[in-house]
Structure formats: C-alpha cells, structure tokens
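Module 6 notes. Inverse folding takes a fixed backbone as the condition and produces residue identities as the prediction. Think of it as a translation problem where the source language is geometry and the target language is the twenty amino acids. Below is one complete input and output pair. Work through it position by position during the lab.
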C-alpha cells in the first residue's frame, strides 16, 4: 500500500534526514521525500498496519529533523 502525506520542511538537508529515517522505519518498504512538492510518499510492507507504522514513522522523522512536520 502506498500513501502520500503532506509535509512541511524548511531545508533540503532536513528533508533528506527525514527521508533516511522514514526508510529505516520497520514496516516501511520505501519512502521518498519530495522537497519541492512538500510530500512524503511511503510504501508500506504488505504485512504492516499503516496506522501503527505511521505513528513510529512520524516520531522517527521528527527525531531526525526538528523542523519536519506532517500536515493534515
């Protein structure tokens, strides 16, 4: 399952740090931050519960970059 999240991040370096953190989150198959469009595209593992993984994903991204925010 793929989901796209609206995000807010101020610099490309911070976006890269959050992307790396998202990719290392258990249950995430792949993750890409599009800095220009302010979007995070996540593909979840088939066996993963997207809501549960999202909570860990959000924490990991915020820990990697303090100016990274999920919108809506």
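Target side of the pair, the amino acids:
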């Amino acid at each position: 399952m793929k989901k796209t999240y609206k995000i807010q991040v101020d610099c490309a370096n911070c976006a890269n740090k959050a992307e790396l953190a998202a990719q290392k989150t258990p249950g995430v198959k792949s993750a890409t931050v599009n800095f220009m469009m302010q979007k995070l595209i996540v593909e979840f593992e088939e066996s993963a519960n997207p809501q549960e993984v999202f909570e860990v994903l959000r924490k990991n991204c915020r820990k990697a970059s303090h100016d990274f925010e999920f919108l809506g």
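Reference fact for the lab report: The first helix runs from residue 12 to 23.
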